[in-house]
Every structure is written in C-alpha cells, then in structure tokens.
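Our consortium's second objective concerns turning raw sequence data into structural hypotheses that experimental partners can test. To show how far this objective has progressed, the report includes one record in full. It was chosen at random from the queue rather than selected for favorable results. The single chain below, 219 residues long, was entered without modification.
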Amino acid sequence: MIYSNGMLLTQDVAHKLKELSKDVTIDLLISVDGPSPEATERWRKNSNYKTIKDNLTYAIKYMGSQRDVRFTLRGACVLPSDLRNKSLSTIKQYLSTAGNYLRQDFPGANVTVKFAYPDIEVQGTEVMSVECENLSYCRNIFEIIFVEADGGILDCTCSTVYRIIGNVLEEDMYDVWRKSPLLSKSRKMFRGAEIPHMCELCVANPYSSRQKFLIKSIK
C-alpha cells in the first residue's frame, strides 16, 4: 500500500510503479481533501489540483489495465458551517456526495471521503461532536498492517494514542500483528460490542462509535 498526495506521482514514478506491480499488488492511495478542487488547495498546503489531476490521469491510463494495481482517492472533508449541529444522517449524506468531482475526474479510481481529523489544529475551523452508532468492526484492527519507514509496526494510525508493537526488521511482521496483546484485546472488545480506548477518537470509522466523535466545521 502506497500513500501519496499525487503531487510527485510523475510519469517517471508511474513507470517505476508499473514495473513493481509485476511482482507485488499495489494499492495506491491518493489524499485529495475537500469537496472541490478549490477546497483541496485551501486545506492541503502546497497542493495544486491541476498537477494532481494530470499526474493521476496519466498513472491510471498507464497502469490502470494492470490487474495488480488499484487506485483509491481518499480525502478528509471539513464540513461547511451550515451543517453545524445537524444529524449524523445529514452529515453522512453530505460526505457521500462530497467526492463527486473526483468520481467525475477519475472514473478509473475508487473514491472515499471521511471526516477531517479532529485532533489537528486548522485555522478557520472549530470542533463539534456527533452522537454515533455502535462500532462492531474495524478494518484497521482485523485486516491492515501499518508499518513506518523505520520498520516499526503500529497497532493503528487513526487514533491519537497509537503504539509501536514490533519491528519488521527484527521480527516476523504477520506474527507480531496476529499475536499482539494490544490488538488482541481490541479485537476481543470489538467482538463484544465494546469500544477500545484507542478508538474513541477514531477518524476512520466516525459513523460507528457509541462515543461522541469530533469533527471540524468551518466557522
């Protein structure tokens, strides 16, 4: 899995990734925030939507026919002020359409739009809370292994209290992930319809926590 903001996904990089895809499956996640190109450039510093569009359009055309290459555009969305204090269903409806411009510009990619991170200070925003549903499952806990550049294996990356549970340079990655006491405890709590402490401010599953979930709203 490769994360990028698309700015450096040049033609040369696309050529190298296509060669790499002959040996491994590539999940390419591109971060494009906001409900419009203008919002993307406002909220993601030094980004240029035209550059992102040109780079990704070429990459999808060049690599899109590869069976082992998958493209996903994933963005965090700062809610407009008129959604302040609205119901969760109204907010979910807004988020379901916030990525329509991306679906139109990149028909060869999957598009997902979620809440903006509540623990990052952004000028011109405030934090509000929304009552959410019960959480019963999380892909991060049951399906995904997160590895840092130095080899550190993380229990999750969507919580403000994530921890290192091992290192791929010293241990078997899958064995660490499967047997981690921290993750095992979280999985057991999920199965019992409880919310692990590390998930109380999760941004990956904002619709499904029994706790109050913090989101940003334009002032």
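The partners drew two points from this record. The radius of gyration is 18 Å. Residues 92 and 207 are 8 Å apart (CA to CA). Both points have been shared with the crystallography group to help prioritize constructs.
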